[in-house]
Amino acid sequence: MIAKSLPSYELIGVGVGPGIPQLMTLQAIDILKSADIIIAPTADPGTEGRAELTVKALLPDLLIHRVLIEIGVDPTNSYSECAKTICGWLDDQRQVAFITLGDPNVFSTFTSISSAVLEYRPETLIASAPGIMAFQYLASATNTVLLDNKETLALVTAIQDLDCVSMAMESNFDTIVVYKGGKYFRQIADLMEASDLDASFVTGELMGLEGERIDKPSRLSAKDYSYLSTMIIKLTHTP
Ligand SMILES: C[S@@+](CC[C@H](N)C(=O)[O-])C[C@H]1O[C@@H](n2cnc3c(N)ncnc32)[C@H](O)[C@@H]1O
């Protein structure tokens, strides 16, 4: 048996998976059990965030500190405030674990928070523990093969427009994963229909959470999709 070892860290980003407690890694659980301080980002300090809910389902007795990250405005201030608080704990020799949905190195607040911490405290030892990502879960839940042979995958966002999606389509990627683009899913479907590409897609909203909606057929349901939605597009290119 391989001896288990936890990463060395002062501040660690811990991926807790897409929101399904069983998909948290054993390493994540071990880190959270041993960390001195656990913090979770939230847009509303009065409510448990999704990462917190996921952790609490397995480790109900853990004390989790919520840090306010204001969405919709420039979050730089929130990052600085959060970083100052974290630096206080680090100066007191306490190990801090920051929980985040999915993986901490993919579109995660952890990147901004750890950068802000390094500005105040450049010597901080930062580490991360990987987590299963939403699109991996969606692929599994819909029996979608993400990649095979020489196929290529693009992971893009559609926050304010479809530029990245169009770029990936024009660049002949075989699989395109769209994050943060729920409000554009209908437009993306139209875009694919209007193109001469042979495309199919699956969508997953609030996966693992209350209100989960996973649509396997290549037709979108009439209801709009929220921010916490993921789309996988498969394109078949004819040689
Ligand atoms: C800020 S990013 C976080 C990505 C995360 N770090 C990861 O590795 O999957 C948020 C986006 O991830 C996707 N996402 C994360 N969790 C999800 C879930 N439970 N259900 C559906 N989509 C999810 C959505 O596209 C959402 O807009």
What do you see in this structure?
By secondary structure, the protein is an alpha/beta fold. The protein folds into 2 domains: 11-129, Cobalt-precorrin-4 Transmethylase, domain 1; 134-236, Tetrapyrrole methylase, C-terminal domain (Methyltransferase, Cobalt-precorrin-4 Transmethylase, Domain 2, 2-Layer Sandwich). It has helices at residues 26-34, 50-58, 76-91, 109-120, 134-141, 163-170, 185-194; strands at residues 11-15, 37-42, 64-68, 96-100, 126-129, 153-157, 175-179, 198-205, 213-215, 229-236. It has a 5-stranded parallel beta sheet, with helices on both faces. α6 (163-170) links the parallel β6 (153-157) and β7. The longest helix has 16 residues, at 76-91. It is elongated, with a radius of gyration of 19 Å. The chain starts with 10 loop residues before the first strand and ends with a strand. The structure holds S-adenosylmethionine (SAM).
Give a short overview.
The chain has helices at 26-34, 50-58, 76-91, 109-120, 134-141, 163-170, 185-194, and strands spanning 11-15, 37-42, 64-68, 96-100, 126-129, 153-157, 175-179, 198-205, 213-215, 229-236. The protein is α/β, with parallel strands linked by helices and 239 residues long. It has 2 domains: 11-129, Tetrapyrrole methylase, N-terminal domain (Cobalt-precorrin-4 Transmethylase, domain 1, 3-Layer(aba) Sandwich), CATH 3.40.1010; 134-236, Methyltransferase, Cobalt-precorrin-4 Transmethylase, Domain 2 (2-Layer Sandwich).
